[in-house]
């Protein structure tokens, strides 16, 4: 990969350890994927924040970089393993909290915004159309590429961090227009009546697209929360982190529908629910907010919980960004949810919090949430916000 004089000096260590290490990572990636050069990025989203996933080796790696590393561009963080303020309320141990706080301290030292959300585009890290960025976290990457029209590969934690220290990323993959051409036409001929149907649709398209870029037709309208849910699901279950939705996402007008065509019918949506849902009736945990809840979703949950009480056998979590929670505090939604017995899980989520062994079953609106909960040995149920609230109130899935 060609390096400018300045980049070569960074690689030689002129700007210190963190930049040298970052350049080594970026050059290695560039060589593997055949990048010709590095390109500037407008922002970075760093995943790999939970101590649960990092362990002591990861913490040590971050502390080394934090000694002299400072980010050069706007850099935001993915969810951590706990609510940074209210972790005790979520049953997190002192030992875990101590380690998680050390991870956060390291990121803070690097100049990263301690945003701890997978919806950075809702809290101020909003790239422009066509902008090159280096984001990790699959749902956010898919949203940025598809709904916003920015350009990013699906970075891992270390490569995103490296891009933040250098302000650049190797130009390959989805940074190149020739790799952003859709290669499978998916016609949707199915009714989508509730939020979780978008997760089911993502499941079906992800399975049929098999690492291709879908060009989706047949959808007349899509709200932001629906697209957010779809992005998380379609990439989790198999597609590339980019799709086009005719008339809805930018760039779809530039491409004709590809020749290879598949259709999604109502039976496919039904089949997706059958595959995502397990045989289980008693629900231990209800978690809404994968990806993190928008303020609109929080308002809906608060309204549904009015005059209701969460079952003593169930925990009810609203996973969201601290920013959205602050708005919820002001609008009275927090009080409404907490009065009913619900809890806010800010800064964290059902996939990265240390939940294994604590809950046997979970109900959620999210297909991606079900995928990761199964990895935490939980039985899963996916449904609408109403169905999830009902499960939290009765302790049962009906
Ligand atoms: Fe976000 Fe966690 Fe879901 S990072 S997309 S809430 S698994």
Characterize the structure shown.
41% of the residues lie in helices and 15% in strands. The chain is of the alpha/beta class and 398 residues long. The strands form four sheets. A five-stranded parallel β-sheet has the order 12-11-10-13-14, with helices on both faces. Helix 10 links the parallel strand 10 and strand 11. Helix 7 (195-209) crosses helix 9 and helix 10 crosses helix 12 (333-339). The longest helix is centred in the first third of the chain and has 17 residues, at 17-33. It is globular and about 65 Å long. The structure holds FE3-S4 cluster (F3S). FE3-S4 cluster is lined by residues 78-79, 118, 137, 139, 232, 290-292, 319, 349, 351-352, 368-369, 372. FE3-S4 cluster binds next to strand 10 and helix 13.
> What is the typical, i.e. mean, pLDDT?
97
Q: Which range does the strand content fall in?
A: 15-25%
Strand line-up in the sheet with most strands? 12-11-10-13-14
- Which small-molecule species are bound to the chains here? FE3-S4 cluster
Structural class: alpha/beta
- In total, the number of strands is 14
- The total of helices stands at 14
* Structural shape: globular
SSE sequence, one letter per element: HHEEHEHEHHEEHEHEEHEHEHHEEHEH
Radius of gyration: 21 Å
| Low-pLDDT runs | none
What percentage of residues falls in helices of 4 or more residues? 40-55%
* N-to-C CA distance: 57 Å
Largest sheet, strands/sense/barrel:
5 strands, parallel
């Amino acid at each position: 990969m060609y390096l400018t004089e300045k980049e070569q000096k960074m690689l030689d260590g002129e700007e210190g350890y963190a930049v040298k290490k970052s350049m080594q990572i970026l050059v290695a990636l560039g060589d593997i994927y055949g990048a010709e050069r590095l390109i500037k990025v407008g922002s970075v989203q760093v995943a790999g924040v939970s101590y649960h996933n990092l362990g002591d080796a990861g913490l040590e790696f971050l502390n080394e970089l934090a000694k002299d590393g400072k980010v050069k561009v706007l850099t935001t963080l993915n969810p951590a393993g706990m609510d940074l303020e209210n972790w005790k309320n979520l049953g997190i141990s002192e030992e875990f909290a101590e380690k998680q706080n050390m991870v956060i301290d390291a990121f803070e030292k690097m100049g990263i915004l301690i945003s701890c959300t997978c919806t950075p585009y809702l809290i101020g890290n909003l790239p422009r159309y066509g902008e090159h960025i280096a984001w990790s976290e699959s749902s956010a990457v898919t949203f940025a590429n598809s709904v916003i029209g920015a350009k990013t590969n699906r970075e891992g934690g270390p490569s995103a961090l490296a891009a933040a220290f250098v302000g650049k990323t190797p130009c390959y993959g989805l940074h190149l227009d020739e790799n952003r051409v859709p290669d499978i036409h998916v016609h949707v001929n199915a009714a989508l009546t509730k939020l979780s149907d978008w997760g089911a649709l993502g499941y079906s398209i992800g399975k049929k697209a098999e690492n291709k870029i879908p060009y989706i037709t047949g959808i007349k309208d899509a709200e932001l929360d629906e697209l957010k849910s779809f992005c998380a699901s379609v990439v989790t279950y198999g597609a590339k982190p980019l799709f086009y939705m005719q008339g809805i996402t930018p760039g779809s007008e530039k491409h004709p529908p590809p020749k290879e065509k598949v259709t999604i019918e109502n039976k496919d949506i039904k089949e997706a629910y059958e595959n995502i849902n397990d045989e289980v009736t008693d629900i231990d945990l209800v978690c809404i907010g994968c990806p993190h809840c928008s303020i609109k979703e929080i308002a809906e949950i608060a309204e549904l919980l009015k005059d209701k009480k969460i079952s003593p056998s169930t925990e009810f979590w609203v996973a969201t960004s601290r920013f959205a929670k602050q708005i919820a505090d002001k609008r009275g939604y927090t009080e409404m949810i907490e009065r009913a017995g619900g809890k806010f899980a800010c800064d964290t989520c059902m996939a990265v919090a240390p939940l294994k062994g604590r809950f046997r079953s979970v109900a959620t609106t999210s297909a991606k949430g079900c995928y990761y909960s199964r990895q935490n040995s939980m039985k899963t149920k996916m449904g609408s916000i109403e169905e999830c609230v009902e499960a939290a109130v009765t302790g049962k899935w009906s």
